[in-house]
Amino acid sequence: MITLGQFIIKKQSDFPYAKGELSRLLRDIGIAAKIVNREINKAGLADILGDSGVVNVQGETQKKLDVYANEQFISALSSGGECCLVASEENEEVVLLNTDVSKNAKYVVAIDPLDGSSNIDVNVAVGTTFSIYRRKSTDGNGVLEDILQKGTEQVAAGYVIYGSSTMLVYTTGKGVNGFTLDPSIGEFCLSHADIKIPETGTIYSINEGNYVHFPEGVKKYIKYCQVEDDATQRPYTSRYIGSMVADLHRNLIKGGIYIYPSTASAPKGKLRLVYECNPLAFIIEQAGGRATNGYERILDIDVTEIHQRESIFIGSTKMVLLAEEYMAQYSPKEILK
Ligand code: P6P
C-alpha cells in the first residue's frame, strides 16, 4: 500500500529541480479534501444541508457545504505556505493569501471547491476540481497575470470525487494516478495507478433536457449515439449524473464522452474554463483522452476572465473526434473575418 504522501515524495524525483514545494502543495490539498469529505459524509445529520442564503458570483445560491469546502481549501492552502493566491468558483475576486508564509509562494491555485453541490441534499456524488500554476508575477501586483494562464501552463491538476468511496485523482504531466481514501487510517492510498481512458466507449453524458437549444452538430451526434448498430455497439448508454466530476470519473474508467455545449441559458456553455474545464482537460489528455470546445483544444483556449465559461466535449478520443466532425459539418464555427 502506498499513501498519497509517499507517492508524491517518490514522484518528486520526476522533477530534478523540485525542492518539495509542489509536493507540499498537493499534500495540503489532500488534507483539505479529507476534512471536506468528513463533513460531506455527515451532511444529512448536521445542519449544513440546504442553502447558506448567500448567492455566489455565478448567481447560484451557495449550499452551506459549498461555503464550508471553500473555507477549508483556502485555509489549508494559506497555512501550507506553498500557494500565494486562489481563484475559486465561490469568490468573485482572486483571494490573496498574504500571510508571511504564503505571500511569496511560487504557486497559484484555481479551484471549484464543491462542484455539483445541489446533489448533496439528495446524496449524489459531488466533486472538487483544482489546477496548479506557477506564479508568473514577480511582485504582489500580477494577480490576473498569475491566474489568467492557459491550461497548457498547468503544473498539476486534479479532482476529488466524494462518491461511494472518496478518491483523489491527479496529474503533474506524467500520467494520471488515483488514490482512494481509507477511512480506517485516514489516508488516501494508491488504488488506480497510471489510469488510461479507453480510446472509445459506449456511454454519453449530456443533459438532453436542453436538446431543443443544442447546436445542430450536437443534435446529430446524439442521434448517432441512439441509432441501432451492432458493429459499433449502438445505441450507446445515456448516463448523466448532474455532477461533472462523477460523470467524468466514470467515463475515465469505462470510456465515454461528456458534453456540455452552448444552450439557451448558457450560450457559452455552463462549465467554467479556469477551474473546471482546464483541470479536467489536463487529466483526460494525460490519460490518453481528448478535451475540446467542439472546435478547439480546451488547454489552448485564451483565458480572459476568472469565471469565463466554455463549452466542453471531453472523454474518449474517438468519441470526441466524431462529435467534432458533426460540429464541423452541422455547426461550423463562424470563421473570424
Ligand atoms: P445542468 C453542476 O452544477 C455542474 O457544474 C456540473 O457538475 C454538472 O455536470 C452540470 O453543472 C449540470 O448542469 O444544467 O445539466 O443541471
UniProtKB/TrEMBL annotation:
SUPFAM superfamilies: Carbohydrate phosphatase. It catalyses: beta-D-fructose 1,6-bisphosphate + H2O = beta-D-fructose 6-phosphate + phosphate. Keywords: Carbohydrate metabolism, Cytoplasm, Hydrolase, Magnesium, Metal-binding. Its EC number is 3.1.3.11. It comes from the Bacteria. Mg(2+) 2 binds at residues 112, 115, 276. Pfam families: FBPase, FBPase_C. GO terms for cellular component: cytosol. Signal peptide: none annotated. CDD domains: FBPase. Its main location: cytoplasm. Residues 2-192 form the Fructose-1-6-bisphosphatase class I N-terminal domain. Substrate binds at residues 115-118, 207, 240, 270. One of its GO terms (molecular function) is magnesium ion binding. Homotetramer. Belongs to the FBPase class 1 family. This is Fructose-1,6-bisphosphatase class 1. The gene is fbp.
